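User: Um, what's this?
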Amino acid sequence: MTDAFADTSVEMQSIASLRNGNHKVFEDIFKAWYSPLCTYARSILHDTDDAEDVVQKMFCTLWDKHSDLEVHTSLGAYLYRSVHNACLNQVKHRNVHSEYQNRELQANSEAGDSLHEVVVHNELEAAFRDALQKLPEQCRRVFELSREEQLSYPEIAERLHISRNTVENHISKALRLLRQMLKDFLVVIVVVARIVVM
């Protein structure tokens, strides 16, 4: 899958093109490295959803800072190191969360925010809304209260007369189902989510 970047000269050209803001090169890098990076992240986090969130966020950051990109080893080593560091931060966050149960799940919030940024793009608005309507009723209601009305987990739990754990489970389920239903837009989500907010 990463054979296209095996040749050093080709890789250097790709890095230079990415630094200059070439969307096509970014998409090629994303398609080539997304799966192996998710596998690596999953080996550290032991959670598929968290691993995918970490890798997607890393690619968003890569695009945000493409003009300042400095690769001193190889592209693969750079990407793996970035994911490794992000995973360590994720593990640290888990530890903090276990000590402070009243803190919102930051990883889920970031994933939800990423999806919310994308829906402002007209081409994806219809797909997102359609996917949202396909969620189980209670799951959709919890997700809408969190992302559209900006209610905290305790506030949602109080309004719907359910436990905070149930709220967290609904949010996680909603994000997982939305990711599955919108998987065909995955590359577009990573590229467009940052372009439309510039």
Summary: The two ends are 31 Å apart (CA to CA). Residues 11 and 74 are 8 Å apart (CA to CA).
